[in-house]
Amino acid sequence: MSREERIWAPWRIGYIVGENRAAEELPIAQLLPGAEPDCFLCRCAATTDQRKALVVYRDELVLTVLNRYPYNNGHLLVAPLRHCGRLEALSQQEDNALLQALKRFVALLEKLLRPEGFNVGLNLGRVAGAGLPGHLHWHVVPRWGGDTNFMPVLAGVRVVPQSLEAVWELLHEELSKQQAGGG
User: Fold this and answer.
1) pLDDT by residue (tens digit) across 66-98?
2) CATH number of the domain enclosing 51
3) Residue (of 103, 49, 101, 75) closest to 162 by Cα position
4) Residue 137 among the catalytic residues
5) What is the Cα–Cα distance from 108 to 114, expressed in whole angstroms?
6) 105-119: b (≥16 Cβ within 10 Å) or e
7) Which of 80, 132, 154, 159 is the most exposed place for a label (fewest CB within 10 A)?
């Protein structure tokens, strides 16, 4: 058994073995028209428990959630609200809304977590690394100097210093302030 297999990181196992039970367990009111019941983003869009689903933001076009299997602290997924797997299928309105959401959440993470940079990207298609090729989503990954330390290099494990719940609280609180006109 390798050292990597012995390090405890229970939040990763569902992703590693291809399970996504967390999304299946979300309480949902009703899936949106065109939504896929097996798509975790579609289920997040329809949830009645945004905290459990790690939904940070939702409007008529955009969904933003914390990545349940983060590469780094504050790792977000920004997606069109509707189930759409092709860039060319997005409307101009969705294009604009998604870009505005990406800009907004980069700024929000800069304010709250003070990263030194970001990786912002879209994996288009399974061979390009998309774990969910049927629903476009951009990764917004905050980065800090030295965030690739000995753990990923020697053990193949990334240490995330803050819980998803704590990051959700930070983002939720700041978004509430902004919506109230105080941020």
Assistant:
1) 998 888 889 999 999 999 999 999 999 999 999
2) 3.30.428.10
3) 75
4) yes
5) 9
6) bbebbeeebebeebe
7) 154
Quote the domain boundaries for residue 31. 3-179
- Segment (H or E) for 178: helix 164-179
Domain total of the chain: 1
The reported pTM is 0.76
Q: Which residues of the chain have pLDDT under 70?
A: 1-27, 148-161, 182-183
Give the tokens for residue 35: 């939504």
| C-alpha count within 13 angstroms, C-beta hemisphere, residue 109 | 29
User: For residue 25, what are the contacts with CB-CB under 8 A and spacing of at least 6?
Assistant: none
Which tokens hold the place of 24?
A: 């299946």
- Which tokens sit at 44? 């997040």
> At 3, is the secondary structure helix, strand, or coil?
helix
In the chain, % helix, strand, coil (3-state, to 5) comes to 40, 15, 45
Residue whose entry in the numeric block shows the structure tokens 């990923």: 152
Catalytic one of 75, 137, 139, 172 = 137
